[in-house]
């Protein structure tokens, strides 16, 4: 029996998160059959793990227009576009209904363990591009399966591979051994068992992004509540504190994202958290009563803490892509053409030029990393970026290059310019290089007005080329 022509094969999409499900919708729009493989028991499995966290984007910014068109005939109504879903809402009221309408095309409990070219490992050139892709899958029931595909869209995100506490990007000495008192997620303080773990305790929060801001705000709320007296945060930062440390505040075009930074600042100003700056965790030791002592590369040892929350970002799992010829940036592990547009050493304004299949392509034709995973280790990925990426990729796979190249994307700016600057000068002002605005002034904590002033340094119309 003749093998089906490659073009008759499905496109395998790895991951049934927002980007993966949107990819399936756009492939169907292009007349191509998708097969979505999701490791978790349900669609949106990763998003459900942060169900308790409210997004800083509104419903209007996290629903893919093409998906909405597919859902509408089913009687689905989009929630009020101006309101903010939680992760749980996003999964329940959008991702799950979308997976349901996609039906058999979404298989859950299906973990992709390897992707390659049929009969060709990474070395072999011989008519390589004429071969379909092979995808190895481990099913939750223990079965293994080998699938063939005409193209592969990896939308598996980075949620499963959080970065460690160690200041050098490696797990700190003793970090694994102290796992019973360390989490890499924003804790759900509405869960009584979790709440008891942090109430009245001293907790270190390591990291300086939206998730760290959220954790600091949650701990401050706990400290202000009846059952949270004595709750204290210790905010560990690798750099000094300056105008952009708390994000863009009112200048952020995503007000809820700006508010996160201001809430973190308030937590520090109100004394619910102490900021420890220029601290790179080298070791996590356990003292006599089991509490944890963070030791810094500079020899500093912090007072013991009861718990540690590590929110230092994410990194892509590339282990199952080892047989493919990927072109990834050495810093970010993002596609080489996309990386310069999102490099936090250069950019923090949150905007990214419209990009699509060309920026997401690799030496291996027919494979694309999209969604959160396309950003590699870079922060600032937004769902609407993923939706435009997959629209372009699906058109490219269908050969509709005119539509694939017509990428449109306008992203809300953070109101912060200049990039993250050099990490190893804790008290240096940001903006060593990076995009457009002048470096913000260092701000003394406890003087709320200052942050506003720093944010006002941003030139009208935000930053980066606008
Ligand atoms: C706490 C938090 C808040 C955020 N808030 C916002 C916001 O307000 N606005 C915004 O625009 N963005 C936000 N984001 C960023 C981003 O939009 C989300 O992370 C979004 O979920 C990314 O979608 P994704 O489909 O790329 O990845 P994910 O949602 O992570 O989905 C990937 C899926 O792939 C599955 N998977 C992983 N490995 C495999 C494998 N080997 N085989 C099969 N399946 C696999 C996972 O189980 C998961 O379900 C937030 C992110 C976080 C973590």
UniProtKB/TrEMBL annotation:
Superkingdom: Bacteria
Keywords annotated in UniProt: FAD, Flavoprotein, Oxidoreductase
Example of a GO MF term: oxidoreductase activity
Domain FAD/NAD(P)-binding: from-to ranges: 11-331
Protein name listed in UniProt: Thioredoxin reductase
Keyword Oxidoreductase: yes
InterPro entries linked to this entry: FAD/NAD-bd_sf (IPR036188), FAD/NAD-binding_dom (IPR023753), FMO-like (IPR050346)
Species of provenance: Streptomyces griseomycini
């Amino acid at each position: 029996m003749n093998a089906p022509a490659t073009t008759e094969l499905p496109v395998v999409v790895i991951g049934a998160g927002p980007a993966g499900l949107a990819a399936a919708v756009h492939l169907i729009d292009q007349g191509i059959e998708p097969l979505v493989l999701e490791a978790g028991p349900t669609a949106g499995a990763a998003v459900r793990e942060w169900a308790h966290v409210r997004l800083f984007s509104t419903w209007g910014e996290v629903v893919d227009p093409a998906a909405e068109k597919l859902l509408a005939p089913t009687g689905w109504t989009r929630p009020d576009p101006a309101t903010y879903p939680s992760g749980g809402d996003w999964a329940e009221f959008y991702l799950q209904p979308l997976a349901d309408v996609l039906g058999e095309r979404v298989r859950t409990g299906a973990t992709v363990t390897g992707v390659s070219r049929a009969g060709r490992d990474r070395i072999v050139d011989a008519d390589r591009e004429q071969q379909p892709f092979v995808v190895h899958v481990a099913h939750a029931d223990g079965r293994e399966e080998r699938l063939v595909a005409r193209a592969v869209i990896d939308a598996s995100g980075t949620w499963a591979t959080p970065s460690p506490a160690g200041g050098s990007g490696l797990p700190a000495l003793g970090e694994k051994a102290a796992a019973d008192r360390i989490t890499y997620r924003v804790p759900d303080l509405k869960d009584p068992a979790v709440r008891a773990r942090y109430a009245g305790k001293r907790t270190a929060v390591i990291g300086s992004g939206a998730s760290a801001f959220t954790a600091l705000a949650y701990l401050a709320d706990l400290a202000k509540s009846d059952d949270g007296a004595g709750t204290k945060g210790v905010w560990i930062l690798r750099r000094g504190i300056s105008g952009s440390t708390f994000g863009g505040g009112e200048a952020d075009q995503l007000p809820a994202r700006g508010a996160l930074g201001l809430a973190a600042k308030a937590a520090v100003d109100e004394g619910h958290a102490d900021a420890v700056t220029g601290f790179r965790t080298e070791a996590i030791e356990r003292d006599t009563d089991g509490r944890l002592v963070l030791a810094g590369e500079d020899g500093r040892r912090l007072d013991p803490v009861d718990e540690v929350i590590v929110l230092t970002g994410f990194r892509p799992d590339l282990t199952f892509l080892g047989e493919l010829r990927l072109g990834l940036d050495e810093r970010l592990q993002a596609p080489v053409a996309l990386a310069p547009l999102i490099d936090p050493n250069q950019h923090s304004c949150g905007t990214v030029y419209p990009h699509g299949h060309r920026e997401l392509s690799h030496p291996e034709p027919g494979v694309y990393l999209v969604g959160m995973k396309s950003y590699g280790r870079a922060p600032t990925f937004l769902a609407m970026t993923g939706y435009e990426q997959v629209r372009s990729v699906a058109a490219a796979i269908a050969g509709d290059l005119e539509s694939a190249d017509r990428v449109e994307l306008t992203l809300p700016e953070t109101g912060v310019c200049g990039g993250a600057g050099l990490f190893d000068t804790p008290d240096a002002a940001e903006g060593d290089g990076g995009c457009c605005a002048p470096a913000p002034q260092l701000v003394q904590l406890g003087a709320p007005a200052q942050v506003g002033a720093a944010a006002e340094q941003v030139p009208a119309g935000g930053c980066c080329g606008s």
